[in-house]
């Protein structure tokens, strides 16, 4: 068995269709052929003897497809009869091959077989050593006769009919005086065929076409596929544009015509040429590639400074360039980057040699090929890479510290020996362009003239436009007129020397049978405040107020918020409607926002479109739904104010509906349409004309009727304005342009981050937590970078404080959330005191606490008193419900009944010295620690007590069943003291040690820090607006003002006290007096107080509630201490 040296050769046909040598000859021969024999008898005597055909012999019919590899010819049986092994021969360029000498590749196999019986469809014969062939013939030898049944290549004989036995030539005994003449038979219809050389190349490509048709055609018609033709037999044709071209030849003789079409036969690519040879070098006057470089173009990279050239240890040749002194005036401590393109003539494996002193690197196609980096004397490194024919981006980097400066680039391949690289192209000629285009209008009525503009990047040099209606253009910015209605795809193929790129826009141009509108606002713009007019009249609008682009009825729509959004279109004569007005739009309305005091007759009215002011409109349309009853009004001016209206049609909130209106002064009728159908007659008695004006046009608002304005709320889409009277059918056609889809709820954007501060570089993982199923995300990380991932990871490389924004979108709309100063990479060190305040939930810290209010509340909160806590400074009926209370000296509670500690979240109650819980039936919640002695009388103890000194019991305190008092010193109690209480008092050798956290209140920061972080400098004169931040150098005092809104405030008194008085509305925030005290007189305060000299609450009934500093300041870099 002979092994075939190719793979996968049994296929329908997978060869190169442009190089295919193919013939599918048919072997059906015409049945009875009369054979004419001429016999010479004697001198000058001619005898014509007519003999009939012998019995016909059946001849097989089949077709072949030849293909080759490097050595052999493969004949693929593509259809027809099977041939037995001993009943045919293969003739290649006149040389006969016996099938017994040939191997056959069966269908579905890769290997050739030498032992086979017949050659059938899908199988290939292998003819060894005949890869370079011109002609192939398959000759049937069955029945003892030779008949051509298939062939390919030059001078192929195409037989017709059935084969016959060899004709008999019969001499006559005597010459015949008069010969018998046989009529000349009609030729067969031509079988068209041709070749072209070459079949591919770059612009301009000259192709020589050669006719190979049989049956003696007498005329030819060539179609070259680029819009040109020829009637020559063997024409030469020049392709001046790039692309793939299908060629058709029609060959004709008196019997008829035959044609052949070769699809995508000619391939023409853009011309690849280099206008500026060489490579661009950027020279820097330092070794770090920093600063502004000096540039020049070098033909090759073969450089050394004079010291290296003069060094006898090296031989750089006589033509090496002294470098880089002539360029930057120095040969030490410099760097250079060479960039350009490497021109490759033939695909091959290439070896590159890079020699340098000091470091250098070579990139080709953005891949590192040679790495010769580092400080070193002249050293060579090499690398291998396979490169295809064409242009390849190349870059060389080199730096020099001191000593010799050398840089050389050489190469070699199997096709040439080692030498310096000089095949460089310096221009930016080799980047494939990115195709793009725009049109001045994308819709309108027949005929529609559109100006197309190329917006491709990458410097294309040729263009091929397809307008979707069967016409093309090679202009850069063509103008085209569409003569028929329909939707048209438009494509642009932009090319340069490097290649080409397509931009295709489906259904880009819409041409209707309608007249062209004077304004067509589709609201399909991706962003920006311009509402583009698609009518071609240039009536673009400016979107005012707060708006968003959401899912519309046809693509995107514009959302009007009902309080500020409208579209303003500058005045233009095309917008004037003296006789006729037609309006159409898709609306998805919401109940409007009625201004306070609006008269009932105006409630829920919204202005759809308006040109004019108040009661002198050229036209204005209003619509409303009030309590389920709809009303439409048309206002105009014709010597006097006119208003026409109708009621009772269908107009619903929260759903799409198409609203159209036509006013025709010729007929006097004004008609309303809903969803393409007649809805109501607004009036039948219009004036003869409408007065025009010079006012702008507005959409969604009335121009001048303060304070009402009649603002539209909801989504608008596809607003169309005509100054002709449209018919019922035309209204239906507009309505049928699109069908709105059900709209989901717009997303509500939100996100979190796994960390918000740290040192650079800091990697932060962001997690999208938006609701309502967004389908796209746009993150702005605040450092100039963005992401469209749902939950991206981002690294901040530079110090700073960054705001982060997330925009989420779905078909229902878009929502954005911005977290200001969210990420801190500022390197600001957070003080231990600030961390302690946040971690421990500190909300009162100071020397004293004087409290005349009702309660101090704060689950998980901490109060720290650096002196004493005494009952005479606490309202007897109050409760100090902090979880942890640390008092550095004595807790003396000998009157009143103020509770101590949190019942819901008990923590630690600590006295650094003595604790006295005497008069007052007060509750004590939390684990009590006493640094010295404890006196206990009326209190109610809910948790364990630990006493480092003596225990003195008086009266009968209450102790919870699971609570005990552990003491180290001695115990003292009255006679007859209840044993049940004594049993809960246990003497021990030691108790757990605990101490007040040792932190000192820090001073205020520098004034410049507060200024740069948004603080106002004030001593109490400014209004306390919500969120205000204040720094006072001395005492800050503020009495309530009716304008105050003291929520989420921060007040810092750098060297004095803070005093807030007479606040009968809630106050919340942070009060920081590092050298003074805080005094509060008001109904309630939420937040934290840090004051060296204490916190004083002077008014009865005041409630103080803890809030952690993190609830006011999310970024630790903004902590005020």
TrEMBL record:
The chain crosses the membrane at residues 29-50. Residues 190-273, 433-499, 747-830 form the PKD domain. SUPFAM superfamilies: Anthrax protective antigen, Concanavalin A-like lectins/glucanases, PKD domain. Residues 162-186 are annotated as: Disordered. Residues 274-427 form the PA14 domain. CDD domains: PKD. Residues 162-181 have a biased composition (Low complexity). This is PKD domain containing protein. Pfam families: Laminin_G_3, PA14, Pilin_N, PKD_4. Keywords: Disulfide bond, Membrane, Signal, Transmembrane, Transmembrane helix. It comes from the Archaea. Gene3D superfamilies: 2.60.120.200, Immunoglobulins (2.60.40.10), Toxin - Anthrax Protective Antigen,domain 1 (3.90.182.10). It comes from Methanoplanus limicola DSM 2279. PANTHER family: PROTEIN TOLB, PROTEIN TOLB HOMOLOG.
């Amino acid at each position: 068995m002979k092994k075939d040296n190719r793979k996968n050769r049994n296929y329908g046909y997978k060869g190169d269709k442009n190089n295919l040598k193919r013939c599918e000859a048919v072997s059906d021969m015409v049945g009875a052929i009369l054979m004419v024999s001429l016999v010479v008898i004697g001198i000058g005597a001619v005898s014509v003897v007519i003999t009939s055909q012998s019995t016909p012999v059946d001849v097989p019919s089949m077709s072949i497809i030849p293909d080759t590899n490097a050595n052999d010819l493969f004949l693929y049986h593509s259809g027809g009869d099977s041939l037995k092994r001993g009943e045919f021969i293969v003739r290649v360029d006149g040389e006969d091959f016996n099938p017994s000498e040939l191997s056959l590749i069966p269908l579905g196999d890769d290997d050739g077989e030498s032992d086979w019986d017949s050659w059938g469809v899908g199988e290939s014969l292998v003819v060894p050593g005949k890869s370079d062939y011109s002609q192939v013939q398959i000759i049937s030898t069955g029945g003892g006769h030779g008949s051509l049944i298939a062939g390919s290549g030059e001078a192929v004989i195409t037989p017709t009919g059935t084969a016959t036995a060899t004709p008999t030539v019969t001499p006559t005994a005597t010459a015949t005086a008069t010969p018998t003449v046989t009529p000349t038979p009609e030729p067969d219809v031509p079988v068209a065929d041709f070749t072209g050389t070459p079949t591919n190349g770059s612009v301009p490509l000259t192709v020589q076409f050669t006719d190979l048709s049989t049956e003696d055609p007498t005329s030819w018609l060539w179609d070259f596929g680029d819009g040109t033709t020829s009637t020559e037999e063997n024409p030469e044709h020049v392709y001046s544009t790039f692309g793939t071209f299908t060629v058709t030849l029609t060959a004709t003789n008196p019997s008829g015509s035959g044609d052949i079409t070769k699809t995508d036969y000619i391939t023409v690519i853009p011309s690849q040429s280099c206008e500026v040879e060489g490579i661009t070098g950027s020279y820097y006057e330092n070794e770090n590639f920093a600063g502004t470089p000096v540039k020049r173009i070098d033909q090759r990279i073969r450089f050394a400074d004079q010291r290296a050239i003069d060094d006898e240890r090296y031989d750089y040749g006589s033509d090496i360039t002294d470098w880089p002194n002539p360029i930057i005036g120095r040969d030490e401590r410099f760097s250079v980057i060479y960039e350009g393109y490497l021109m490759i003539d033939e695909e091959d494996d290439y070896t590159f040699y890079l020699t340098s002193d000091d470091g250098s690197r070579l990139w080709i196609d953005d891949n590192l090929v040679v790495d010769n980096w580092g400080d070193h004397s002249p050293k060579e490194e090499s690398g291998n890479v396979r490169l295809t024919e064409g242009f390849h981006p190349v870059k060389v980097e080199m730096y020099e510290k001191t000593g010799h400066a050398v840089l050389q680039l050489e190469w070699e391949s199997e096709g040439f020996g080692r030498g310096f690289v000089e095949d460089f192209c310096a221009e930016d000629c080799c980047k494939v362009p990115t195709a793009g285009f725009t049109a001045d209008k994308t819709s309108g009525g027949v005929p529609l003239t559109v100006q197309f503009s190329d917006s491709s990047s990458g410097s294309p040099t040729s263009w091929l436009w397809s307008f979707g209606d069967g016409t093309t253009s090679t202009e850069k910015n063509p103008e085209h007129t569409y003569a028929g209605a329909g939707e048209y795809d438009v494509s642009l193929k932009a090319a340069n020397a490097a290649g080409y790129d397509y931009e295709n826009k489906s259904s880009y141009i819409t041409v209707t049978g309608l007249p062209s509108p004077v304004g067509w606002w589709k609201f399909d713009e991706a962003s920006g405040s311009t509402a583009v007019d698609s009518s071609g009249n240039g009536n673009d609008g400016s979107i005012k107020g707060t708006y968003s682009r959401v899912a519309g009825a046809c693509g995107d729509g514009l959302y009007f918020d009902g309080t500020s959004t409208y579209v303003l279109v500058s005045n233009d004569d095309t917008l004037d409607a003296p006789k006729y007005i037609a309006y159409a739009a898709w609306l998805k309305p919401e109940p409007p926002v009625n201004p306070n005091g609006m008269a009932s007759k105006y409630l829920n009215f919204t202005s759809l479109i308006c040109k004019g002011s108040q009661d002198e409109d050229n036209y204005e349309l209003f619509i409303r739904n009030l309590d389920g009853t709809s009303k439409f009004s048309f206002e105009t001016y014709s010597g006097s104010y006119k208003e026409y209206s109708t009621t009772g049609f269908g107009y619903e909130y929260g759903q799409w509906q198409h609203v159209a209106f036509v006013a025709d002064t010729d007929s006097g009728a004004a008609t309303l349409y809903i969803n393409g159908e007649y809805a109501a007659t607004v009036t039948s008695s219009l004036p003869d004309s409408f007065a025009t004006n010079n006012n702008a046009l507005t959409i969604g608002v009335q121009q001048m009727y303060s304070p009402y304005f009649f603002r539209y709320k909801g989504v608008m889409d596809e607003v169309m304005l005509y100054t002709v009277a449209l018919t019922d059918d035309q209204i239906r056609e507009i309505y049928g342009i699109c069908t709105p889809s059900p709209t989901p709820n717009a997303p509500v954007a939100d996100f979190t981050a796994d960390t918000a501060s740290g040192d650079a570089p800091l990697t932060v993982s962001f997690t999208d937590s938006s609701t309502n199923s967004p389908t796209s995300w746009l993150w702005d990380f605040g450092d100039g970078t963005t992401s469209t991932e749902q939950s991206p990871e981002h690294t901040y490389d530079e110090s700073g404080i960054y705001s982060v924004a997330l925009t989420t979108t779905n078909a229902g709309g878009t929502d954005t959330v911005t977290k200001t100063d969210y990420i801190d990479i500022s390197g600001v060190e957070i003080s231990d005191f600030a961390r302690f305040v946040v971690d421990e939930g500190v909300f009162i810290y100071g020397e004293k606490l004087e409290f005349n209010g009702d309660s101090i509340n704060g689950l998980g909160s901490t109060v720290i008193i650096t002196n004493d806590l005494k009952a005479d400074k606490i309202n007897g009926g109050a409760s100090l419900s902090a979880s942890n209370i640390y008092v550095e000296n004595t807790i003396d509670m000998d009157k009143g009944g103020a509770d101590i500690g949190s019942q819901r979240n008990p923590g630690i109650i600590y006295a650094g010295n003595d604790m006295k819980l005497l008069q007052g039936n007060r509750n004590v919640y939390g684990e009590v620690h006493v640094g010295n002695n404890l006196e206990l009388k009326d209190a109610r103890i809910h948790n364990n007590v630990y006493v480092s000194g003596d225990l003195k019991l008086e009266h009968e305190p209450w102790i919870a069943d699971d609570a005990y008092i552990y003491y180290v010193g001695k115990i003292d109690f009255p006679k007859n003291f209840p044993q049940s209480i004594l049993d809960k008092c246990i003497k021990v050798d030691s108790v757990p040690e605990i101490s007040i956290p040792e932190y000192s209140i820090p001073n205020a920061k520098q004034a410049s820090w507060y200024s740069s972080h948004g603080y106002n400098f004030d001593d109490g004169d400014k209004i306390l607006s919500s969120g205000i931040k204040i720094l006072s150098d001395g005492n800050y005092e503020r009495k309530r003002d009716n304008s105050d809104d003291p929520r989420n405030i921060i007040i810092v008194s750098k060297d004095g006290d803070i005093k807030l008085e007479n606040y009968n509305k809630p106050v919340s925030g942070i009060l920081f007096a590092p050298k003074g005290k805080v005094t509060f007189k008001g109904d309630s305060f939420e937040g934290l107080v840090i004051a060296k000299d204490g916190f004083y609450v002077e008014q009865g009934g005041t409630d103080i509630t803890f809030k952690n500093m993190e609830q006011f300041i999310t970024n630790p870099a903004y902590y005020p201490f």
